[in-house]
Amino acid sequence: MAPTLHPDPDVERNSTEHPTPADVVADFLNAMQQAEVETVISLVAEDIVYSNVSLPTIRGKDRFARAARAYYRNHLGFQVVVHRIAENGSSVLTERTDAITLGPFRMQFWVCGIFDVHDGKVTLWRDYFDWRATTLASIRGLVGILFPALRAKFSDLR
Predict the structure, then answer these.
(1) Cα maximum dimension of the chain
(2) Whole-angstrom Cα distance, residue 126 to residue 158?
(3) I need a surface site. Which of 59, 99, 114, 146 has the fewest CB within 10 A?
(4) Residues 4-10+18-147, CATH architecture
(5) What residue spans define the domains of the chain?
(6) Using an 8 Å Cβ cutoff, are 124 and 49 in contact?
(7) 102 — phi, psi (to 5°)?
C-alpha cells in the first residue's frame, strides 16, 4: 500500500527515468508504511541526518539502521497520509498526517517534513510537529484502547 495522498496529486513516473527526489521520498514513506525496514535503510545515504526537531538527532546510516530496526522489532506500526508534496531541486517538502500504532494504541498527528535527496538516497530527514497536538494524540490513543470507536483514523481528516 502506497502512502495515501490527499488530495491525490499526479505522482506517477516513467519507469525508464531516474526517480526524482519526490519519488524517492514516496518510496521511502511507502517502505516505512509496509514495515520494509531493509528497504527503508537502503534508501538513506551513509551520512543521513535524521531529526525530529526538539529531539536528539541521529547521524549516520549505522545509527539510523539501529533505530529503524528497533522501531519495527518493537512491533510499532506506521501509516501516513501525504497532504502535499513539493520538490525544489534536491529538496522535498511534505505535509502529512502520520499514525504510530502499537496493538490497539494509535496516535495520529500532523507533521511537516523536509527531505534532501542526492543520488537517489535520503541525506536529510527533518520533521517538525506540534508537541501539544502530539500529546493530545497520545491521550486520544490511550482512550481509544478502552473505547475503540474513539480511535483516530485517517477518515477523520476530511
Answers:
(1) 50
(2) 26
(3) 146
(4) Roll (3.10)
(5) 4-10+18-147
(6) yes
(7) -150, 105
Q: What is the pLDDT of residue 146?
A: 93
Q: Provide the sign of the torsion angle of the four alpha carbons 21, 153, 155, 1, taken in this order.
A: positive
Alpha carbon distance 33, 3 (integer Å): 7
Task: Give the position of cell 491521550.
Answer: 139
Element of type H or E holding 24: helix 21-33
For residue 97, what are the CA distances in angstroms to 42, 61, 94, 108, 152? 24, 25, 10, 7, 11
pLDDT at residue 155 in the model: 79
Q: Kindly list the distances between the CA atom of residue 113 and the CA atoms of 25, 87, 128, 148, in Å, as whole numbers in the listed order.
A: 10, 12, 6, 29
Q: Write down the pLDDT at residue 9.
A: 35
Report the pLDDT value the prediction gives residue 15, as an integer from 0 to 100: 56
Residue 18: predicted pLDDT: 85
Residue 85 bridge partners (DSSP):
94
Q: For each successive 10 residues of the chain (158 residues), what is the average pLDDT? A: 45 64 96 95 98 94 96 93 96 96 95 97 96 94 93 78
